[in-house]
Amino acid sequence: MTDYQETLYAGYGQRFAIDRMLHEVRTEHQHLVIFENARMGRVMALDGVIQTTEADEFIYHEILTHVPILAHGRARRVLIIGGGDGGMLREVAKHREVEHITMVEIDGTVVQMCKEFLPNHSRGAFDDPRLNLVIDDGMRFVATTEERFDVIISDSTDPIGPGEVLFSENFYQACRRCLNEGGILVTQNGTPFMQLGEVQTTAQRMNGLFADWHFYQAAVPTYIGGAMAFAWGACDSASRRVPLDVLRQRFAGSGIVTRYYNPEIHLGAFALPQYVLQAINKPGNV
Ligand code: SAM
Predict the structure, then answer these.
(1) pTM value?
(2) CA 105–ligand 1 middle distance (angstroms)
(3) Which of 23, 174, 242, 247 lies at a C-alpha separation of 20 to 30 Å from 269?
(4) What is the C-alpha to C-alpha distance for residues 117 and 232, in angstroms, rounded to an integer?
(5) Is 39 exposed, middle or buried, given 0-12, 13-18 or 19+ CB atoms closer than 10 A?
(6) Which atom in ligand 1 lies closest to the alpha carbon of residue 228?
(7) What CA–CA distance (Å, rounded) separates 12 from 157?
(8) Is 218 touching ligand 1 by the criterion CB < 6 Å?
């Protein structure tokens, strides 16, 4: 039996036993591998970086979907950038009041291979009539679209290869342009313990662009190095301060059954540790 060694960090990383290789291909944009591991279920990696596993994907997809949508309270149009495995789409589609979902994924092969080899991620969400699936660079889309959105979720790879542009100042500015009044942008922003520079850079780029910006966290076991940070950029400062009882009403009203998200975790996730606050030049969790 061979192993899959993640290569995101020099000299430090995680290893998975490949119990069964399901698919491997060099796509137009990246190297894709999907394999089975007895403990983590089916695993996908792109360009040597673990993207998602069946065992812990619920944490990441729930926290990056339900926090902005339940904070917003009236999200009708949602944009997902990246997200080719379909897990984010599955969670967004659970919100009945969402009327339109646009998903812009640069690599059509990722969508096709995940439909076939990671069916538990999308669970039929790619057939949702509300979906407009666009195979394109997310940067080009947000820079040129006339459409507007209430929530934008950037579910991208790390800032290497095709994902790099999704951490640029132009990207954040273009997302801000595409948001309706009261709109919210959230993005995967790496694990601060290992990638503190990425959080710092995003903070600098969001500062001054959004009425309110911050980060929130969740520990996703296979995004190694501690809790993962998610960037928050909101057009309305009140969005991050929705009272607990309101979140509880909205969550109950959604009828969505979760395994990770709950309103208390929602609010608690925005409490950042000192070293992260210092890195983003914020005096506190304000
Ligand atoms: N959960 C993962 C993480 O946090 O690293 C991300 C998973 S998802 C598979 C990442 C997706 O972003 C991939 O399908 C990749 O093809 C897509 N992607 C990378 N760069 C992109 C770009 N410029 N525009 C649109 N999609 C992009």
Answers:
(1) 0.98
(2) 7
(3) 174
(4) 32
(5) exposed
(6) 4
(7) 19
(8) no
Q: Per the structure block, which two tokens stand in for 97? A: 């009041």
Whose CA is closest to 266, among 71, 133, 41? 71
User: What residues act catalytically?
Assistant: 155
State the DSSP H helix or E strand holding residue 55, giving kind and residue range, or none if neither: none
Q: Are 216 and 67 in contact (CB under 8 A)?
A: yes
244 alpha carbon to ligand 1 midpoint, in Å?
32
Question: Of the candidates 51, 65, 121, which has an alpha carbon nearest to the alpha carbon of residue 260?
Answer: 65
> Which pLDDT score is estimated for 195?
96
What is the predicted pLDDT for the residue at 271?
98
The parts of the chain modelled with pLDDT lower than 70 are: 1
Residue 1 has what pLDDT? 60
| Nearest Cα residue to 68 out of 199, 231, 218 | 231
Atom of ligand 1 nearest to the CA of 84: 14
Nearest residue CA, atom 20 of ligand 1? 163
